[in-house]
Design a protein that fits this description.
By secondary structure, the chain is mostly helical. Helices cover 59% and strands 9% of the residues. The protein has one domain. The chain has helices at 10-37, 42-52, 56-69, 74-96, 126-150; strands spanning 98-101, 107-112, 120-125. The protein has a three-stranded antiparallel β-sheet. Strand 1 (98-101) and strand 2 (107-112) form a beta hairpin. The radius of gyration is 18 Å and the shape is elongated.
C-alpha cells in the first residue's frame, strides 16, 4: 500500500483525486461527442479519435465536428472549446508540477523547473483545486447537452455557464 503524501493536506489530496475523476469523465465526453457528431462517418471518427491523441488537436476536432452540425453556434462552440482547453491546462498544472509545503497549513506550493522550459510556481488551496474539478464537471455537462442536441432531443445548447465573459485563467 502506498503511503499518503505527508507534505500535502488530506484536503489537497482529495481535491487532486477529484480532478482526476472529473477530467477523466470530461475526456470520455469529448470523444463520445465527437463520435456522435460524426454519425454516419464512423470509420472517419474511429481513425481521427485513435490518431488525434489527447492534445489540443482533439478539442479542435470537437469544435469542427460540432460546427459542422450546428454552424450558427460557432461562437458558443468556440467558447466551449476555449473553456475545455483552459480546464485541461489547469489540470496539467495540478498533475504534472511538483508539490511542496508552505508555512500556511491550508496552502500548498507547487512548481515546475524542467530543463529548457520556463520555471513556474504557484500556491494553491484545496478549494483552488476543487474549482478545477467543478469546471471540468461543468464542461462535461455542457457536452452532455450537445449529445442531446445531436440525438435530436433538443435545440443547440445555450451558452449558459459559458456566456459569462470570465473564463477561468491559470492560477500560476
Amino acid at each position: 500500500m502506498t503511503d499518503k503524501l505527508t507534505y500535502l493536506s488530506d484536503n489537497h489530496q482529495f481535491a487532486i483525486a477529484a480532478i482526476t475523476t472529473k477530467v477523466s469523465y470530461l475526456e470520455h465526453m469529448i470523444e463520445l461527442t465527437i463520435a456522435i457528431a460524426l454519425h454516419g462517418r464512423q470509420r472517419t471518427a474511429k481513425l481521427a479519435l485513435r490518431r488525434m491523441g489527447q492534445g489540443d488537436g482533439l478539442i479542435d476536432l470537437l469544435k469542427a465536428a460540432l460546427g459542422d452540425r450546428a454552424p450558427s453556434e460557432g461562437d458558443n462552440i468556440a467558447a466551449l472549446g476555449a473553456f475545455i482547453k483552459d480546464v485541461r491546462t489547469r489540470r496539467n498544472e495540478i498533475l504534472h508540477w511538483m508539490w511542496g509545503t508552505t508555512d500556511a497549513p491550508k496552502i500548498a506550493t507547487q512548481g515546475t523547473k524542467r530543463p529548457f522550459r520556463e520555471s513556474k510556481s504557484a500556491e494553491r488551496t484545496a478549494d483552488d483545486i476543487y474549482k478545477i474539478a467543478r469546471d471540468a464537471d461543468r464542461a462535461a455537462k455542457k457536452l452532455d447537452e450537445w449529445l442531446d442536441y445531436l440525438s435530436g432531443l433538443n435545440n443547440p445548447p445555450s451558452p449558459g455557464i459559458l456566456s459569462r465573459p470570465t473564463l477561468p485563467t491559470s492560477l500560476a
